[in-house]
């Protein structure tokens, strides 16, 4: 699957079925039906595996990931500012440290976005916080 880099966010480019204009309508319907079966199989597998692995999710889980992402971003930027205020060329070790900090931030952000998509697509049950 192709991926598209937008700013610092990697997104998968989905190719969807587009029939040939001169194709047989019955063959197009048959192919669409097969593709729907394939899509449903992927949906069912995601729902079953993610429910077993991650379980139900709620506001607390999202908050934990959001705080972890924000903390990782803060560590990365703070370190970059520390290096920048020193006014020296960065060493290979400093660049590696910044790279590791940025990577941690991006991974946590991707995990947050992935969990959000899982709820949006119905793979994970979302337990709403009861009204007080």
Task: Explain the layout of strands and helices.
Layout: E1 3-6, E2 9-12, H1 25-53, E3 57-58, H2 59-86, H3 92-120, E4 126-127
Detailed description of the structure:
- With 132 residues, the chain is mainly α.
- The chain folds into two domains: 1-53, no CATH class; 56-132.
- Helix content is 65%, strand content 9%.
- It has three helices and four strands.
- It has helices at 25-53, 59-86, 92-120; strands spanning 3-6, 9-12, 57-58, 126-127.
- The strands form two sheets. Strands 1-2 form a two-stranded antiparallel sheet. The chain has a two-stranded parallel sheet with strand order 3-4.
- Helix 2 (59-86) packs antiparallel against helix 3.
- The longest helix is centred in the N-terminal third of the chain and has 29 residues, at 25-53.
């Amino acid at each position: 699957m192709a991926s598209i880099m937008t700013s610092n966010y990697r997104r998968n480019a989905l190719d969807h079925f587009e029939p040939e204009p001169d194709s047989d309508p019955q063959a197009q319907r048959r192919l669409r039906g097969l593709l729907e079966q394939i899509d449903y199989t992927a949906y069912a597998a995601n729902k079953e595996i993610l429910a077993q692995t991650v379980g139900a999710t709620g506001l607390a889980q999202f908050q934990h990931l959001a705080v972890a992402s924000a903390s990782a971003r803060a560590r990365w930027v703070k370190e970059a500012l520390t290096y920048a205020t020193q006014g020296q060329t960065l060493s290979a070790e400093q660049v590696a440290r910044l790279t590791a900090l940025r990577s941690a931030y991006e991974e946590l952000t991707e995990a947050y976005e992935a969990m959000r998509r899982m709820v949006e697509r119905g793979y994970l049950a979302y337990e709403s916080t009861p009204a007080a």
